[in-house]
Specification:
Helix content is 41%, strand content 18%. It is of the alpha+beta class.
Length: 316
């Protein structure tokens, strides 16, 4: 969601002509996040202000993107709070902008949360279970491109930049994770990146799950672990002081299981899932730190956060 591709006003006006959204009123780049270029876009249609988010995809191809955009539409149409993409006049969701694939989606009301309440954690647990159950009926399929193979390859790419303790930690954790047969656990469409900044709330009411561009078919347990690692930890300025809020954790897991019970195999694999989810974001943040991509507005997130989260889970 950093700005890597700068869009001029005349380019955006021409782009919007293929959508039934009125005329351009204003637009501004979004600084949060790290993967794609995003803008808030306001239009005027029949005298009314309409609000959207424009995403320009920096890594995905036109062939890859229908999976994600169709999931967003599928979930919204199955009463999972999700931003619905806006169709072009040709009824597709994609259009080229600045030589890259781009999509326009509805802008949801509310805001993201930095310090979620126990109630909000419960809401997210229940909604993620509903997301997983709905996703089991989605016909598209995409492998997880941030799975263990990616972690191993990325570690090899950045290893020369890392401290010895970081290398030893990652090597040991990859060896541990390689012993778990993740493919045997129940799978569905997963979000794979459901952090606090990817859900919108009005008070304790969830208005929408956003940024589904890591979505894939993978173990549901892993998705739950990704969410727990962000929503249930107590944030601290010094990563060494990070700890988990047991009340948030209990509420999230309980709410999830009121919608979908974890199998015995999932319960046994839960500690490993928490570690795998931490490892994935530790490695990706290390790569962003040491091999950053250039952008007009960029945000590099601290890898030490997930180094600490991983170490916490490894000691349990």
């Amino acid at each position: 969601m950093s700005v890597y591709t700068v869009v001029e006003e005349n380019q955006l006006i021409a782009f919007l002509e293929d959508f039934d959204v009125g005329t351009l009123d204003s637009f501004v780049g979004i600084s949060a996040g790290i993967e794609n270029t995003n803008y808030f876009v306001n239009t005027i249609k029949h005298g009314q202000l309409e609000q959207f988010v424009l995403t320009i995809f920096e890594h995905h191809t036109f062939d890859e993107l229908p999976y994600f955009l169709n999931i967003m539409a599928f979930m919204a149409e199955h009463n999972i709070p999700t931003a619905h993409p806006i169709p072009t006049h040709s009824n597709g969701y994609l259009k080229e902008l600045c030589g890259k694939p781009a999509a326009l989606v509805e802008r949801l009301t509310g805001s993201t949360v930095e310090d979620p309440s126990i109630t909000q954690c419960g809401v997210m647990g229940g909604q993620l279970a509903r997301f997983h159950m709905a996703g089991s009926h989605y016909e598209g399929h995409r492998e997880n491109d941030r799975g263990l193979d990616w972690m191993q390859n990325t570690f090899a790419e950045i290893q020369s930049y890392l401290e010895q303790d970081e290398c030893e930690l990652i090597e040991d954790e990859i060896a541990f994770q390689s012993k778990t047969n993740w493919s045997e656990l129940p799978q569905s469409v997963i979000h794979a990146d459901l952090f606090c900044d990817n859900a919108m709330f009005n008070g304790d009411a969830l208005t929408g799950i956003i940024d589904l561009y890591y979505a894939c078919n993978a173990p549901m347990l892993y998705d739950l672990a990704v969410m727990v690692n962000d929503w249930c930890r107590i944030h601290a300025d010094n990563p060494a002081n990070i700890e988990f809020d047991q009340k948030r954790l209990d509420e999230m897991l309980s709410a999830y299981q009121t919608q979908r019970s974890l199998t015995e195999e999932e319960q046994a694999a839960w500690p490993a899932a928490l570690r795998l989810a931490a490892l994935r974001f530790f490695i990706s943040r290390l790569k962003d730190k040491h091999i950053p991509r250039e952008g007009e507005i960029t945000q590099i997130k601290d890898p030490d956060v997930f180094k600490q989260v991983l170490n916490i889970h490894r000691t349990l």
